[in-house]
Amino acid sequence: MPTKRKFSKEAYDLYDQTAKDKLVTLLSERGHTIISSDEDYFVDVVSQKDGYTYYSEAEVKTAWTDSWPTTWKEIRIPERKKRLLAKYQDEKGVLNFYVFSKDLKQAWRIKDTQLTEEGLREAKGRYIHAGEKFFHIPYTEAELINV
Predict the structure, then answer these.
(1) Which is it for the CA torsion 128, 63, 87, 44, positive or negative?
(2) How far apart are CA 64 and CA 58, in angstroms?
(3) Which pTM value belongs to this model?
(4) Is residue 3 assigned to a domain?
(5) Which structural domain range is residue 127 located in?
């Protein structure tokens, strides 16, 4: 059983809707038609563009407050997001993860194919529980978006 941080309703209430709203705006500006952004406990936004369905998940990295620090060599996606990989693996579509800065002025886009078993390992950090695992994606392999 994976080790994971306890759900924080406070953090969810502070950032979830704001991140989803920003993601809807970003995708719409890029020509997507938004199909759903209703809370269903799976991806945050479902959209379509050019005959494809896009499944998009948003989160805010509150420690990212200015330009991305190059000392942070990787972007970390919690292991619990693995359930989204399983849910959408058989769908004809694209699953993307968007990690926003605290001020929502930038975001990293990470493709589902970048979340691999080889990249899944423990991480250390102030708010990370011992044994908690994350997908580690080198930031140089992600797309930085100015919002």
Answers:
(1) positive
(2) 15
(3) 0.90
(4) no
(5) 9-146
CB 116 within 8 A of CB 80: no
Query: Mean pLDDT, to the nearest integer, of 82-89?
Result: 90
Amino acid (one-letter) located at 69: P
Question: Any idea what DSSP says for residue 3?
Answer: B
E strands present in 70-128: 74-78, 93-101, 106-111, 120-122
Q: Does a structural domain hold residue 4?
A: no
Domain count of the fold of the chain: 1
Residues ≥6 apart with Cβ < 8 Å to 42: 55, 84, 87
pLDDT in tens, 89-100: 877 789 999 999
Q: What is the CATH number of the domain that holds 138?
A: 3.40.1350.10
CA–CA separation, 100 and 53 (whole Å) = 22
Contact between residue 81 and residue 57 where contact means Cβ atoms under 8 Å apart = yes
Residue at 21 is within a domain: yes
Q: Is 44 domain-assigned?
A: yes
Closest by Cα among 63, 51, 74 to 137: 74
